Amino acid sequence: MNLHLSSADQAFRDEVRAFLRENIPAEVARRSRIAMHPPHNDDRLWWNRVLNKRGWAAPAWPQEYGGTGWSPLQQHIFSYESHLAHAPELRWQGIKLVGPVIYTFATPAQKARYLPPILNGDECWAQGFSEPGAGSDLVALKTTAVLDGDEWVINGQKLWTTEGQYSNMGFFLVRTAQTERPQQGISMIVLDMNTPGVTVRTIQMINGDVSTCEVFLDNVRVPKDSLIGEPGTGWAQAKFLLGNERTSSADIHKAFGDLARIRSIAAIEQRNGRPLIEDPAFCRKLAALEIEVRTLEWSVLRVLAQAPSEHPVTACASVLKIRGSELQQSLSELATEALGPRALREYTREQGFADADDDLLWPDVTPGVTVDQMYLRACTIFGGAKEVQKNIIAKVAFGF
Ligand SMILES: Cc1cc2nc3c(=O)[nH]c(=O)nc-3n(C[C@H](O)[C@H](O)[C@H](O)COP(=O)(O)OP(=O)(O)OC[C@H]3O[C@@H](n4cnc5c(N)ncnc54)[C@H](O)[C@@H]3O)c2cc1C
Questions:
Q1: pLDDT (tens digit, 9 = 90+) per residue, 139-185?
Q2: Does the reported pTM lie above 0.85?
Q3: Which domains, ranges and CATH numbers included, belong to the chain?
Q4: C-alpha to C-alpha distance for 311 and 370, rounded to whole angstroms
Q5: Which of 98, 101, 381, when mutated, tests ligand 1's pocket best, judged by the most ligand atoms within 8 Å of its CB?
């Protein structure tokens, strides 16, 4: 990392490095290097517990709720080093998405109930915002929650619910009232995914992963205190949450890992009898991408360093989301280009290579390159499509 670290920050980085070195077995690191989604969910939950024991599971949370009190730069160093060490990626839906909503908007009883299991990875959350007909236009969502005595009765359908099949809790946007301004009738509700009436159906992606779901809600009854905040405040909570999601969507630490992977592939792959890394045209492409990644890194740090009152539910978060997702696509395309025809070998995260011999023949940096490239076609869509981010920038920054 090309940052000028103070001696205190260097000491912090060394402490993090030593902790990661001592606690991540080689086989876990290998699995997390070649997988972006489950089936290795167990590694992620195990790592969640290891981090929580050390007090490092949710670096960005306020200390009173189990956060670290680290500066934005320290949080950045921690994420960067974790990626370099191939630490399993924690389930982000709890720690990065609903956790901050709960400690910001929920009642003391809800905080006490939901935050500790998120910190320890004991409960895994699914984000139920999008619906058929309500993705970019989220305010058009039709799922309803109607109060019946002491219970809300939920009916509707959610779509593209990432890792819904691995989740035992969900946070859902629902319509609790028909209002003139449709935003004012939306609320955020939490529910146990095992409640009668919840049906989760998996969707297979183009790359073979089974990482998203449809969720059907059919007369699902949940207690009255399952709503976060007052009825009708869900839209503000969703905007707060989506700001967080888009900032982390820059995925800057993954981008550095991708650059390293491309360099390793290019050192092994031969073109015209020489390692690809010696090909000037290829090196120009690699260098151009590295410049873009380092530029984005500084922008991410600038946003992270903003005071909480300037929380990035602004054009900044959308700019980071667009640039980060475009770069992820470019990096994965260059990795595939570096592999050449070998990128076509059949490989899935669940099964590895179709031909068992390939596991032995192929260098460790190659598995997952093609499945990543295919999956990342979606990264300019999830968390808010690119065109919609551009609309936000135009509105917030230029007043259109
Ligand atoms: C892999 C993956 C994982 C996901 N995970 C989750 C999840 O866990 N939870 C969840 O709630 N959702 C999830 N989503 C859903 C995601 O947020 C939506 O797909 C996204 O918001 C786009 O909505 P849509 O798919 O309905 O497309 P649409 O809104 O129908 O958009 C289709 C196209 O029209 C364009 N468009 C739409 N409106 C405008 C406009 N006003 N101006 C210009 N262009 C426009 C879009 O850019 C897009 O290209 C996931 C999606 C994917 C692909």
A1: 999 999 999 999 999 999 999 999 999 999 999 999 999 999 999 99
A2: yes
A3: 7-90 (no CATH), 125-233 (2.40.110.10), 249-398 (1.20.140.10)
A4: 36
A5: 381
